[in-house]
Write a structure and sequence with these properties.
Layout (H helix, E strand, L loop, with lengths): L13 H9 L6 E9 L9 E10 L2 E9 L8 H7 L3 H4 L5 H12 L4 E4 L2 H15 L6 E4 H8 L8 H7 L10 H18 L1
Parallel strand pairs: 1-4, 4-5
Antiparallel strand pairs: 1-2, 2-3
Helix pairs in contact: 6-8
Length: 193
């Protein structure tokens, strides 16, 4: 049984960009999201924080943020990266509850946006599968879009694209801030195109 019937990342070629960024769907609702995790593997590590922003008519309309209790100590190297420590998550919702809150924020069959989407979606897929929760969505990788539309950049990391597009300062490696920047990248490139 396929619990998470996620559609694959949209192939970003000229036709896909035309359809995605110039089609009638551009004013639809999108959910840009980001995760902070205890490590890099969805098979072994846990979600620490989920941040998301709702985009409608190419405007950010609403934000969502929750911590998730990883049920084990956060590795020191992770705290050094994102600033999230054990004290901050000790009374946080469980992994399952955090995922359910995120699903509720997203609504039915959302179009998700993430910068390096395969990483973030691997964690939500693993979590929803583990708890037997169906979550059907389509996702767009703003990293792939930025590589295609800003080929002159030497790196397409979130901070680099944000700087190139003059989107302002942000608190990197915090989920809601990174999600907001992924949303702003998507909006800026949609308007630019």
């Amino acid at each position: 049984m396929n619990i998470n019937a996620a559609k694959p990342v949209i192939d970003i070629n000229k036709t896909a960009i035309d359809h995605l960024l110039k089609g009638t769907d551009i004013n639809s609702e999108f959910i840009a999201f980001d995760l902070e995790t205890t490590g890099l593997s969805a098979n072994y590590h846990k979600i620490l924080e989920i941040g998301a922003v709702k985009i409608h008519n190419l405007e950010i309309k609403e934000t969502f943020q929750t911590f998730a209790n990883p049920e084990k100590p956060i590795p020191h190297r992770i705290t050094q990266i994102n600033g999230i420590n054990d004290e901050m998550v000790k009374d946080a919702p469980s992994q399952e509850q955090a995922l359910l809150e995120f699903k509720k924020f997203c609504g039915d069959t959302p179009v998700l946006i993430a910068h390096n989407a395969p990483f973030d979606t691997s964690f939500i897929n693993a979590g929803f599968k583990h708890y037997g929760i169906e979550f059907i969505y389509t996702f767009i990788d703003s990293l792939k879009i930025s590589r295609r539309m800003l080929p002159h950049l030497s790196t397409h990391k979130l901070w680099s694209v944000v700087k190139e597009l003059n989107l302002g300062n942000f608190n990197a490696h915090r989920a809601v801030d990174d999600a907001e920047m992924a949303a702003k990248i998507f909006i800026a490139l949609a308007v630019k195109y």
